[in-house]
Hints:
The structure holds 2 protein chains of 2 kinds. By secondary structure, chain A is mainly α.
Amino acid sequence: MSLTTNPRATENPSRPVGQVRPKRTxxxxxxxxxxxxxxxxxxxxSILAVVYPLYFIVxxxxxxPNAVYEGKxxxxxxxxxxxxxxxxxxxxxxxxxxxxxxxxxxxxxxxxVSTILCGAYALSRKDMPGRKILMLLFVITMFFxxxxxxxxxxxxDLGMLDTVWAVVLPGAVGVxxxxxxxxxxxxxxxxxxREAAQMDGAxxxxxxxxxxLPLSKPLIMxxxxxxVVAQWNSFFDALIFLNDDSKYPLQLVLRNILIQSDVSSxxxxxxxxxxxxxxxxxxxxxxxxxxxxxxLPLMIALPFMQKHFTKGAMIGAVK
Amino acid sequence: MSRTIPAxxxxxxxxxxxxxxxxxxxxxxxxxxxxxxYVLLTPAIIYILVFKYWPMYGVQIAFKNYNPVxxxxxxxxxxxxxxxxxxxxxxFGQVVGNTLWIAVLGLLLAxxxxxxxxxxxxxxxxxRFKKFTQTVLYSxxxxxTVVVVGIMFVVLSPRSGLVNNAIQLxxxxxxxFMGSAEWFRPIYVISDVWQNAGFSMIVYLAALAAxxxxxxxxxxxxGASKLQRIRHIDLPGIMPVVTILFILAIGNLLNVGFEKAxxxxxxxxxxxxxxxxxxxxHAGLQQAQFSYSAAIGLFxxxxxxxxxxxxxxxxxxANQATLW
Lengths: 319, 324
């Protein structure tokens, strides 16, 4: 097998191998070309389908709401205005929600990542007695779940309703993430390293904190990002566990403005129709701006996060 | 228990002990030697005991009349009353049907599309275009469910939405998408593909990258076309990953997307948008019928578990028959 592999082929598997031009019929060659064109076309259309709605929202957020309403905005903003953004930045609910989200995200990520890393490392150690049974304890929860109602009752009985902990703790440890972390440790921390460290008198704590963690930076980055994204975007735990709207995270505030208001306003009748329509258009403009503002932080961070997520998918695919 | 500091002895712990009988004292010694590992594991164990197993213990209220004073343990038993009430209620057929509709539609569309995308992206010649496509296609996965549904409401709005503007430009009548029961399912599934297909694609791309390039080179020498190589090398190469993800998708069939369904619900589309889990939410948390809704939740979990077991068995049989 190794005789036939060309070193260039391993660098770039999709490119035809340099000298060894395979003999082909013309039909095959045209078949491949047609395939390339079709594949590129399909992917370009998919890209367009993903990008255009987002692009439209960005241009609509800075366009005159009347132009959007009349369907004049397609490719470029028209009658540029920043009123939507000004309204958002003047809205205390948004700022308050943003502040809460930052707190929940930082705290939640810290709790989740530290719990997962410590637990996954212990579970990766084959010399820990009871490892299989303990692992099973976690895996079972992937397949059977107590359900929403009992989870709510437990959180209530713990007295956590309307506290930060109700948003941070109930979803803290995802078993899937634990398994990814465990298989990372199993594959990257050699046994010999640990034995050598133990020879030198390092305890398990010392080895974990001084050797394992510094060697696991890609995993730690991945775990931090997974949890930041999840916590930043989550709204459901806040919806069921929080009553006090001064504690609402950004997503819940957004839901109340973006979605709930739309539903309730569809039934509104009476009043001055003209001014109602104008207010409606401004409200739409604010919604566009709000979508942009709330998604921007993660979108900006995306190129930076991409390589870590791709790596994570690889780790996940291994096991 | 007598000696608790063996970890400092500086002896390689991992070395398998010689063929001695696993006496109790030896086992205790092994356990006490690993005490620091147990300490590391403790927070995670406490977490699952409190937030996973305690609720699981509480599932018994599905067979009881739960009241807060008596708690999970002491509330009076009522047997299958709640299950019978659910099965006989007029919502039963509707919510189960709605759940299955979305789940099956979602599986039919949302499962194969990422595979197709990955196969196509993998064939791209230009590395740069490959990276670009990947990044763009998976970016919507980072937008929150709330914002995605918010986007639906503004883009599909009957008054000023992009889609209805396009329809009117073509001479059609505007459609109130978010307020119509017929449109709920298509919108739900399409938006799911829009948001998640790119992200799901990554796993398959990783699996494709792991295929030995020598196979492709050999096939090329033999004159195989791209389509033939996809069919005979790429697809069989990623089949194990596909099977595993398919089984996992089946196991989650009735769970996925509940938050989005809840967000997309309006009084006008409730007849198609009320699924088992949103019904649990409404009956349980909004109307405080804890036992009744816990019973429905349990019904959902058991249905899921059954589906998972059935498909896992099927996959095992199929894998024995066909050797990729």
